[in-house]
Amino acid sequence: RAAEQPSLSIRNLSKAFGGVQAVNDVSFDLAKGELLALIGPNGAGKSTCFNMLNGQIRADSGSVRLAGEELIGRSPADIWRRGVGRTFQITATFPSMTVAENVAMVLMSQRRELFSLFRTAVHRHRDKALALLDLVGMAAQADRPCGVLSYGDLKRVELAVALGNEPRVLLMDEPTAGMAPRERIELMGLAARLVSDLGLSVLFTEHDMDIVFGHAGRIIVLSRGALIAEGTAQEIRSNPLVLKTYLGE
Ligand code: ADP
Ligand code: MG
After folding, report:
1. Ligand 1 pocket, residue 48 CB under 6 Å
2. Rama region for 51: left / alpha / beta (φ>0; ψ in -120 to 50; rest)
3. CA–centroid distance, residue 209 to ligand 1 (Å)
């Protein structure tokens, strides 16, 4: 059987800030339907990688292809429209609007309906918004304003908003930061379900190694901007270079 084209092909990606080589010649693939973890100590270059993948930071060199199409040089809005979603920027939701209205907003913008009558449009997209909220376990709270939600619930709504754009790839930079332990495990379980049920490709970072080893199908390790290891949880756990990186710094 011919190998399926990866969702994202990252080749020789580099970025320097002044004298700091934040990301140094990094190459890897994100396969379709894969939950891939990007780990490494603080300052390893993980967020810089995410920021280059979604167009927020311009790479110095390298290539990022989405199903064959080059993304480097495109704007974040263009990359989002092409199906690379990024979750967990807290500004993504409007606190005075309800959960369902927030999800309806992304459905409207995806169909370029932003200038139509808001109430009518929210009503028209309600079923689809509820289906997305159901996916993330938030349908019961559809009519509450986002401003009153707990932090963990707000992150679920943001995930529903990202899914409203029908992404092929989802980038999650520390999605569980600031969450209680139980919420962290639930959110990563949810991400794993989206990968298996919807065939989404997810790249995420996470500090809690138990969560990484428990959920990621494959793991990539960065250290000082460079990719130093790639493999399954079992392979990464016993990799001497990885152990040295985590214990020696
Ligand atoms: P991580 O997300 O793995 O903790 P980052 O990608 O945030 O790492 O940072 C990688 C390196 O690049 C660090 O040394 C950090 O100080 C530096 N860096 C990140 N963003 C900037 C920036 N906007 N300006 C200057 N240096 C930066
Ligand atoms: Mg970071």
Report:
1. yes
2. alpha
3. 21
> What ipTM does this complex have?
0.98
Which residue's CA is minimally distant from atom 25 of ligand 1?
17
Higher pLDDT, 107 or 142: 142
Q: Which atom of ligand 1 is nearest to the CA of 45?
A: 6
Distance (angstroms) between ligand 2 centre and the Cα of 207 equals 10
Check: CB of residue 51 under 8 Å from CB of residue 86.
Answer: no
Ligand 1 near 168 CB (within 6 A): no
User: 1-83+167-249 is classed in which CATH architecture?
Assistant: 3-Layer(aba) Sandwich (3.40)
pTM, 2 dp: 0.89
Q: Among candidates 169, 141, 187, which has minimal Cα distance to 30?
A: 169
Structural domain spans, the chain = 1-83+167-249, 91-166
46 lines ligand 1 (CB under 6 A): yes
